[in-house]
Amino acid sequence: MSKQADALRVTVPTGAAPARHPRLLTTYRTEAAILLAIVLLELGVGAMIPQALSRGNFADVAQAAAPLIIMAVGQLLVVITGGIDLSVGSVFSLTGMVTALAMAYGFGGVGSTICGLGVGLAVGTINGLLVTFADLAPFVVTLITYAAAGSLAFIVTAGHSMPVPDQNYYLLNSGMLIPGVVNFVLYCVVLTIVVELVLRKVVAGRWLYAIGSSSEASRLLGIPVRATRLSTYVLCSLLASFASVLSLSYISNAEATAGSNLMLQAIAAVVIGGASLFGGTGSAIGAVLGALMITVIQNGVNLIGINSFWQGSVTGVVILVAVLIDRVGKARR
Amino acid sequence: MADAATLLHAEGVHKSYGATQVLRGVQFVLGAGEIHALLGGNGAGKSTLLKIATGSVRRDAGRLLYRGHDTDTAEGAAARDRGIAVVHQEMALLPDLSVAENIHLPHQRRGAAPFRSREAARLATAALAPIDASFAQRAVHQKVAALTLHERQLVEIARALSAGADVLLLDEPTANLTAAETERLFALLRRLATERGIAIVFVSHRMREIRQIASVCTILRDGVNAVSRMPLDSLSDADIVAAMGQATAADTGVAARPAAAASATTGYVVRRNDNALAIPPGGIIGLAGAPAGPEPLIETLIGARAHTGWQVSRDGTPLALRSPRVAVRQGIGFVSGDRSGKGLLATLPIIDNMLAAARVRQGRVAVRGDEVREATGLLQTLRIKAASLWGLPATLSGGTQQKLLIARWLNLKPSLLVLEEPTRGVDIGTKRDLYDLMRLLAAAGTAILWWSTEYGELVELCDAVLAFDSDGRPTDLLRRPDIDETRLALATGMVA
């Protein structure tokens, strides 16, 4: 009798002490482990080549990592919903060519950049519409746009590389909007913080995880599944385009093959960062650290003087180790 | 105790998940040819014990002997793997392969060996014939996907036996069966036990079934033995309920609930052809019968499917429920019968699972700071024991997960709450809690539409029940006090 009485009495949440949020280190366990691994790697390389720990080398690593970081964050959004975007490398290449070409046709720096970002917007929208409304598999859809955008990158200039004619275009990457902070660092930091906060503290961010967890349950809950998924593909492509113009601003030369390695690296970064390709998990900080780790490995391989052909193998081993550690950690919990 | 007839002997079994102790020194003894009921409330540790018996979960401490062999040794484990088979609640057969291939598969140890379809068919026929000869004739070459649930169970049992199993673990095998199928399954189990000495562990929440089929029982409560291997005849229903630590139906009784102040113009009305069903605010309306009837109606109301023939109106105005989002915005809540597929968000913390509907319904943009308080309050209201709000739903027992899904709608004052078999696979105590929640919501003005295959609970709670026959045609609309189990059985053609 008393059981039922209890249930009927306690109708309104009482003023019980709410549970405490889990500690930050518990939430970011995977991320902390990657950070530790990066530090150890860097120290290891530094022990062999002291120059690795110089300020100049850190700047090089950061500069090299920036485009990958931006692409990894975009890829993460898609991966959390249980999708995948294989087209980002081609979008990167095509964006660079279109931007440089626009400059050659006399568009200013801003106008050309907008043209470049338009590539991402267009490809992302096509990806998103085909995945959500035509209900095609993300792998297939983005494989198609990967192939198409990749070939367009060659077509627009008949395969020739394009130098950037605008003398001031480097400012996009290397200028300082905030005194003392180089722009590319600013972009990465702001992007990471914003995306991480959206994922954790904005309802739409939680929807990404919900959709990745069970899109049918999400649909029945009234979550706008299609619109949300569509927007992840658009954002992912847009960020790939942004990474491309940033890289163009630094290198000041556009090549049709510029992005060919980046798709696999972006996906690898997301996986190293603890996201599951089945969807429903992952964090922006993890993806960023994953991208940083890949770059640190490449940098280390270069400094030590190992043939750069080995980079891929080393990265592969690191991904394997990261995924295995994650798996063991989850099994124990 | 470990005499020759003892097949399985577990002693002092401990298991914890994180800080939660699930088993604390459990003993379980299973003799050959015995049908053994394993009982206990949600979270008592039944499922964990079964998983430990099959070796799919590792125990923290304790001994497990199979036919006297220690299962920690390689030979013991191998013998256990051959000897103990689970007949799954969610089926473990390969739907795109034929029955013959499914049964043949465990016999095929080497991938490089040639696949002989004739031999597979012969083996499958031999395995199925003693179970159901006519079914064996008919089904050997069919794909498993084309079989009914009951037929798949038969295939699973045949596969286990032909692979050499002498212990069958059945976790709520009758949950989705019709009365006739249940009867056939029971006859088969009895035959296997008496004629072939197969030992059967039977988990169910239906007291009548347990008495029909089992001879002895073990009852777990909070991870320890409340009853260890006692003959069922020596225990009364009240003894069993008391051992499980739950209030009996007689204790709670039928709580008097004021009839909903219904007028013809308020609330929801659904129509198809000549049939109309009013679901007034504060009313609890039941749906009874096989899925063909209730499912289209439910899917219409929650906006999941159009063109079912059902028309919905609210307060006299027609409603176009084009999508679940539109339905949720109307204040229509839904708790799916497919808990893992359409209910839970398995990779999201408990707190997100609980507040998912509130965020959509109230159009929240940011994750609010007071949501932790809100979720804590809900946990308390529902008396859910969760280690942490940030744990995953998988850390909760099945019944508790069900409460979690209902918790989503509790604070939202839904205009209509649609429930699909919310009490399936849930222990008696949790059922009582769920009934109380329904009464509570109804008292606050929510209209409740509730599909159940347990007539007893429909009789107890509903103001009216719409019954469907097995072809999905509405046959009768019963109103209180004319609702009783016999009439429901007649109207639906199914015995609960």
How many β-strands of chain B, per DSSP?
20
Strand content of chain A: under 5%
Average predicted confidence as pLDDT of chain B: 85
Low-confidence stretches of chain B: 247-256
Structural class of chain B: alpha/beta
Q: Count of helical segments of chain B?
A: 19
Helix tally of chain A? Answer: 15
- Report mean pLDDT of chain A, rounded to a whole number: 89
Poorly predicted runs of chain A:
1-15
- How big a fraction of the residues of chain B is strand? 15-25%
**Rg of Cα set of chain B:** 24 Å
Helix and strand run of chain A: HHHHHHHEHHHHHEHHH
Q: Termini of chain B, distance in Å?
A: 38 Å
Overall radius of gyration of chain A: 22 Å
Helix content of chain B: 25-40%
Class derived from helix and strand content of chain A? mainly alpha
Q: Regarding quaternary structure, how should these chains be classified? A: heterodimer
The major beta sheet of chain B can be summarized as: 6 strands, mixed
Strand order of the largest sheet of chain A: 1-2
CA-based shape of chain A: globular
> Major sheet of chain A, described briefly?
2 strands, antiparallel
